[in-house]
Design a protein that fits this description.
Blueprint: H1 14-19, H2 32-36, H3 43-46, E1 66-74, H4 79-88, E2 94-97, H5 106-113, E3 118-121, H6 134-149, E4 157-158, H7 167-175, E5 179-180, E6 185-186, H8 195-203, E7 211-215, H9 219-234, E8 238-240, H10 242-251, H11 255-260
Parallel strand pairs: 1-2, 1-7, 1-8, 2-3, 4-5, 6-7
Helix pairs in contact: 4-9, 8-9
Length: about 270
């Protein structure tokens, strides 16, 4: 039986938006992250649809010693505290925001958007997006785009809820100007575990090129974050935004590996 790693994140009120949508047909395609909990460092699983072949990246190069810190399900009241922690450690992150939450936390969302960090799209209502009909998928991305625009954000990165994505959704995000990204290290903080467990889950998977998933809705995440950043610093890793991560990965492509693994042709 296929297990899907779902996270219950919608606050009361957002569920009403989902009730207005017709019942969808189940998708027969699930991503590796949706069925296994995290993606390997492989293009089609981690950054589907990208022309960056991660097999060509040399993780031993200094330029590759970065970690993309991604923080989902905001905006949230914890975000200002997270910003303070990031500043204290010279770290950056990409916050993936749910569009329907922005009106309630408008000032916080604007604060994050102007902080030097990055804000991406996490859809409007956080659905299991591949279960939606094409028009419903479009609505979810388009509404989130409008909500993000209200705080001055034009998102270039898309994080599908639950890591649930198929080729059609990746293509739709691209038409909205966004690249899709999953994660290689899952804090599983949505399980309401303590800070020490969250720290352990991330630290054991910290490596050059890692993409870390955390959630700003959990107080334990905020408590665990300083120790995670400190451990990364000890290992000589820098915590960066997704855009900075992508640039670092492209810089770390070596001619020798490129010859062994030619980049796939875009269709």
């Amino acid at each position: 039986m296929m297990t899907l790693f779902r996270r219950a994140v919608l606050p009361l009120g957002l569920a009403a938006a989902l009730l207005c949508l017709p019942a969808p047909a189940m998708s027969d395609q699930r991503s590796y992250a949706a069925t296994h909990g995290a993606a390997p460092f492989v293009t089609r699983h981690l950054i589907p649809g990208s022309d960056l072949d991660l097999a060509q990246v040399d993780p031993t190069l200094p330029s590759a010693r970065v970690v993309a810190l991604t923080i989902d399900d905001g905006p949230d009241g914890h975000d200002p505290q997270i910003l303070d922690i990031l500043r204290a450690h010279g770290a950056k992150a990409t916050f993936f925001y749910i569009g329907a939450k922005i009106p309630e936390h408008h000032e916080i969302a604007r604060m994050v958007a102007t902080s030097g960090n990055e804000v991406g799209s996490h859809t409007q209502t956080h659905p299991m997006t591949t279960d939606l009909k094409p028009a419903e998928r479009e609505w979810n991305l388009a509404q989130a785009e409008k909500a993000l625009a209200s705080v001055g954000v034009t998102a270039t990165w898309f994080r599908p809820p639950y890591g649930d994505v198929d080729d059609a959704l990746t293509a739709l995000a691209r038409r909205h100007g966004m690249a899709t990204v999953l994660w290689t290290a899952d804090s599983q903080d949505w399980k309401d575990t303590g800070p020490d467990i969250i720290r352990h889950r991330i630290v054991e998977r910290l490596a050059p090129g890692a993409v870390v998933l955390m959630h700003s809705t959990k107080a334990a995440t905020v408590a665990a974050l300083p120790a995670i950043l400190e451990e990364g610093e000890k290992r000589g890793l820098r915590f960066v935004t997704m855009t900075e991560w992508e640039a670092a990965m492209r810089q770390s492509v070596t001619p020798e590996l490129a010859l062994l693994h030619p980049a796939p042709r875009r269709r």
